[in-house]
């Protein structure tokens, strides 16, 4: 892939250095459009899961397309607002919202809290009362559905920390009149991430739909149903078969076609993963006694997914051309065996200095990066029809250590 969104990647890497995260604005807009088209005719809103890629320029792109935000922290709230997302398009999920975070979200007037425990519900009531505002809330349902994805990103089984059972949610609604400052009139479900089959979605949506009907019959109006994110993407060409947005939307229509309230969706990965690549250079080739290592200048601190989830990411040379195939363990410079992007990967033969693109890194790439091994955070660039914009400069060593200081101001608490 010599070119991405009309931009020559060799020249770009020359100019901005590597490792470098690049994102195609065109590809992101296309994905947003596909989902919006698939949902056309429904009263539906898309809230981008900020955690997938919280860069300001990416969030601005979302905002310009009418997309709101699904946030899980005050930091993400700040980013969404800074990017121009209106507060009434922001929903707040997560099991560990702190009192300060809830208070701040109440102050700016977000659309909805996706509440995940009774304690959180009571905290929300107390803090909304203190501000004399009414919080709009949805119960996050844990439907006990196996998303058939990696265990670490599966969230909808009853053993997971997320949401509450339908039985518990039923009790919340029965007692909702006691909540003077919480309008409990929404349902929320998110069963996991990188989901490649319709069945888990079908099960979850059917359970939520049945519960919505039961609640309506019991006199509890449900004004919004948030169906979460989770749509998978293609990380391995020819192997991963992502769902089509139209089929996913068809499922929504089947389960909730007669629902008259607002439907919300919280895609993260689907909108940005395939729109991003991590550009990296080959530092050297090391012939080990058992394996041949391709040592890159990117490492697990730049892209954690392979070491954390054994995730596959396609890796391709930026220069086209025919070269014989070779088998490598593709690794980074970090001092851990886990710093491995791929084992026994067949690639066109590489040489030091070659530029490679690790694909599918637009989601949960830069957002999960760290400075482990004191490696500065990589730069990020947005590409759009032949032009590029630097949207995060490479962290300097000074920036990396800013905030640290010698222990000379000793005190007792
Ligand atoms: N809504 C909620 C409440 C979530 O917890 C998540 C993701 C999403 C929406 C967006 O899910 P998506 O559409 O992106 O699948 N770091 C992992 C993924 C963690 C996902 C966490 N929650 C990875 O790199 O695979």
Structure description:
- This protein has 413 residues and is of the alpha/beta class.
- It has two domains: 248 residues, TIM Barrel (Alpha-Beta Barrel), CATH 3.20.20; 121 residues, Lyase, Ornithine Decarboxylase, Chain A, domain 1 (Beta Barrel).
- Helices cover 29% and strands 24% of the residues.
- The strands form three sheets. Strands 3, 12, 13, 14, 15, 16, 17, 18 and 19 form a nine-stranded mixed sheet that branches. Strands 4-5-6-7-8-9-10-11 form an eight-stranded parallel β-barrel.
- Helix 2 runs parallel beside helix 9, helix 5 packs across helix 6 and helix 8 packs parallel to helix 9.
- The chain starts with a strand and ends in a 12-residue tail after the last helix.
- The mean pLDDT is 97.
- Bound molecules: ligand LLP.
- The site of ligand LLP has 22 residues, from helix 10 and helix 11.
